Amino acid sequence: MYKIGEFSILAKTTIKTLRFYEKEKLLLPYFVDSNGYRYYETFQLLDLAKIMSLRQVGLSIKEIKQVLDEKNLIEALNKRKTVVEEELKEYKYQLSKINYLLEESNMKYEVITKQLPEYVVYYKEGIIKDYSEISDFILSSADECLATNPNIKCVEPDYCYINYLDGEYKEKDIRIRYCQAVNNWGTPNKTIKFMKLKPVMAVCTYHKGEYNNLGETYGFLIKYIEENGYEIIESPRECYIDGIWNKENVSDWLTEIQIPVRKK
Fold first, then answer.
1. 3-state secondary structure string, the chain?
2. Are the C-beta atoms of residues 242 and 132 closer than 8 Å to each other?
3. Which distant-in-sequence residues (6+ apart) come within 8 Å of 160 by Cβ?
4. Distance between CA atoms of residues 138 and 150, nearest Å
5. Pick from 19, 22, 90, 205: most CB atoms within 10 A?
6. Quick one: angle between helices 73-103 and 61-70, nearest 10?
7. How far apart are CA 220 and CA 203, in angstroms?
8. pLDDT per residue as tens digits for the range 167-186
9. With pLDDT > 90 as the criterion, what percentage of the chain qualifies?
10. Residue of 226 and 92 predicted with greater confidence
11. What is the pTM of this model?
């Protein structure tokens, strides 16, 4: 038999670790004499090696106890494998984003990926002469909705956006859909309809300033999506946070572009 210090040398671990494993009842000394001195046998090196190996793959003390007691090692390792694989996916995503941000020396855009929640929205579709008419289109939709739904309320915090429906970029006679999230399903009329949006993951960034520069922001986001293994599954959403209705200076307008995606 070996005293605890001698055993720690053989095992290439500390006395503190051995005492911790004893306290947790993972590895008890083979013998404790009347003076409290602890002794171990050589076969316990194999038990200790197994414990240390399981610790190194990330199993908790509780999980190791279950493995040693119930002999369900394969199940425990498969469970841990799944966790590690998910963590690797997340780390790879974080690494790709770090590399992407490092490449963008001016850091003009900050990209985030988030889950857009479920909403009930009213929507209006129509054709505007050019982008300068977007604000009027949005404001008129509220009056048209309230005409048949006087008690309807917008959700808080507010959520609304524009979709472009032409399937290509146009500067004139642009077909758009405006959506506004509301607190319940309303009554449709000639111009206003209702639908429920399903939850969806989206790649998003903010655009500061006038709308005729949005093309650059879209180009940046689409490049990001392509280079990070996503594919677009729905039309992009332009969410208007600040605009002509509350900001006098065009440079203070703030728009969030949200592009629904999924991993390839």
1. CEEHHHHHHHHCCCHHHHHHHHHCCCCCCCEECCCCCEEECCCHHHHHHHHHHHHHCCCCHHHHHHHHHHCCHHHHHHHHHHHHHHHHHHHHHHHHHHHHHHHCCCCCCCCEEEEECCEEEEEEEEEECCHHHHHHHHHHHHHHHHHHCCCCCECCCCCEEEEECCCCCCCCCEEEEEEEEECCCCCCCCCCEEEEECCEEEEEEEEECCHHHHHHHHHHHHHHHHHCCEEECCCCEEEEEECCCCCCCHHHCEEEEEEEEEEC
2. no
3. 121, 138, 154, 178, 179, 180, 181, 239, 240
4. 17
5. 205
6. 150
7. 11
8. 777 888 999 999 999 999 99
9. 44
10. 226
11. 0.59
State the amino acid at position 121 in one-letter form.
V
Please check whether residue 199 is in contact with residue 114, taking contact to mean a CB–CB distance below 8 angstroms: no
pLDDT digits (tens, 9 = 90+) for 27-48: 999 999 999 999 999 998 988 9
What pLDDT, in 10s, does the model give residues 204-252?
A: 998 888 877 788 888 888 988 988 889 999 999 999 888 777 888 888 8
**pLDDT tens digits, 242-263:** 877 788 888 888 899 999 999 8
**Tokens describing residue 251:** 């440079």
Tokens of 128: 């505007």
Integer CA distances (angstroms), 106 to 99, 101, 102, 103, in order: 14, 9, 9, 9
In tens, the pLDDT along 102-132 reads 655 444 677 888 999 999 999 999 999 988 8
Measured distance CA(83)–CA(60) in Å, rounded: 13
Contact in structure between 205 and 110 (CB atoms under 8 Å)? yes
Cα separation of 208 and 109, whole Å? 10
Report the distance separating Cα 232 and Cα 224, nearest Å: 11
